[in-house]
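re the bet — no i am not wrong, look at it urself. input seq straight from the record:
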Amino acid sequence: MTNQVKVSIRHLYKIFGDDPATAMEAVRQGTSKADLLENQNHVLGLRDINVDIRETEITVIMGLSGSGKSTLIRHFNRLIEPTAGEVCLDGENILEWDEARLRQMRRETMSMVFQKFALLPHRTVLDNAGLALATRGRKRKEYEAEAERWLERVGLGGLGGQFPHQLSGGMQQRVGIARALTSNAPIMLMDEAFSALDPLIRTDMQDLLIELQAELRKTIVFITHDLDEALKLADHLVILNDGAVVQQGEPQHILLNPADAYIADFVADINRARVLRARSVMRTDPVDGEIAGEIDHNDNLESVIEKAEGALSPRFRVMRDGKPVGTLLMSDIMRALVPRKTDHAA
């Protein structure tokens, strides 16, 4: 990747309890989350997290309930103080910043979209969308046009005079996204932003985020417990378990190369044909034989199988930006559709 690192998390630990410093010694010596709770009555939130967030990418942090994902995202803007480690923004450790500089960062650099919308019920949709600019001292007439522009962009044009209770859940979350965009912050933190929505509305919101990201190229950290959502959105995927990173990398690579039995089980039930892309399975070396047609490097395997009409003999030239980049064989597709068993899983 050529995108530069925007936020860097280094050796981050979080322990909840009365004496986290003492508990840290036990954690460094290998004490598990369960043993720490049983023996010292402390909760291990995060263990030695090392993650780089690159500019203009969507980094998805996912895991089951209790894995530490929401704890982690709240360290990015220091809503939670770590027990040990560093959180660096553009190379500067924000743990060394004073309150004034932190407030400025939260207002101007990192916007946040919450699961429960976090809209102010007594303010109009327009005022909620412009809230970040209002906290910077801007008058309503100064941020009104900008807020209206982003409300229009997320499909809420003409609803600025409504109040949150007059909107559906999906519409309220669109206000939350408009608020983050109106702030013009280069980094968006999204904590389970779509989890409270119905499935169809959730899909619409995912599509909206992908559309906006293609246009705006923000640096986004997205928290979810849903693997389908993670695979759909992520440029870089980080999977947590019991407060530690189990595996991270490009989602296609993780799906094809699970690091251990936990990851293998995690991805076992995914519809691989719908998720895997031609670029992940193609051969880049020259392949002899007749070419049945051309496909895009981002086409999923399901569409390629449909194009082959179920036959195993066709081979396709893989194209990217009008140039050939590889060859895709149906036999390689069939192998990719079978979940790989790790040594641990076996």
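see?? Residues 272-336 form a domain with the CBS domain Like fold (CATH 3.90.1280.20). told u. also The chain has a mean pLDDT of 90. so pay up
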